[in-house]
Design a protein that fits this description.
The model has no long low-confidence stretch (mean pLDDT 96). With 218 residues, the chain is mostly helical.
Length: 218
């Protein structure tokens, strides 16, 4: 049970601080500093949680990572379901707090496809590829034999910063269904209408990363 609670707390921190930074900074491509600041906020949130709850749950705080880990045979599907439940709770609570603090008109840092000119296929491709790369780094750096050991959390956080620097232009960067679902539920409108993209694509990317890492493990 402690693992699931840790995942809920970790996902809450990632969503609240990452999306909160996006709102506070007014993340906009026309102001590069706000994009960089938002990317750093998401990455540092992961680093902080990796060294806080990593020893308890492994600090997935992302359903796509949990899927990749389960597909790689590193955890049972029953345990994965517990992780997913905790992550969703954490993301939703964060979304509720963001709505209370910033107000729904702020957008709550929700993901969208305006940067893709409303092109759903492009959004799916971008999110799938970015999640694939992110989860591949997670699986590689946390591998018991080939991994980076105590430096894994830092490598993963820095990678998430890079992922955001690329993805914010297109979708605001999700690569994490729980991070997208929480804000979308309270923002409503287009954010909620398009949230399925940020569930399907990251999960597809996570599964692909697991398949790729299995190839490297052989």
């Amino acid at each position: 049970m402690k693992k699931y609670v840790a995942e809920a707390i970790g996902t809450f921190v990632l969503t609240f601080l990452g999306c909160g930074a996006a709102v506070s900074l007014g993340c906009a491509e026309s102001v590069p500093a706000t994009v960089v600041g938002t990317a750093i906020a998401f990455g540092l949130s992961v680093v902080a949680m990796a060294y806080t709850i990593g020893g308890i749950s492994g600090c997935h705080i992302n359903p796509a990572i949990t899927l990749g880990v389960a597909c790689s045979g590193r955890m049972s599907w029953k345990e994965a379901c517990g992780y997913w439940a905790g992550q969703l709770v954490g993301g939703i609570v964060a979304g509720a707090l963001l709505a209370y603090i910033y107000g729904i008109p702020s957008g709550l840092g929700a993901n969208g496809i305006a940067g893709c000119d409303e092109n759903i296929v492009l959004a799916l491709v971008v999110e799938t590829v970015l999640t694939f790369l992110f989860v591949l780094v997670v699986l590689g750096t946390t591998d018991a034999e080939k991994g980076a050991g105590n430096l894994a959390g830092l490598a993963i956080g820095l990678t998430l910063i890079l992922i955001h620097l690329v993805g914010i232009h297109f979708t605001g960067t999700s690569v994490n269904p729980a991070r997208s679902i929480g804000p979308a539920l309270f923002a409503g409108g287009a954010a909620l209408q398009n949230v399925w993209i940020f569930i399907v694509a990251p999960l597809a990317g996570g599964a692909l990363a697991a398949g790729c890492w299995k190839y490297f493990e052989k």
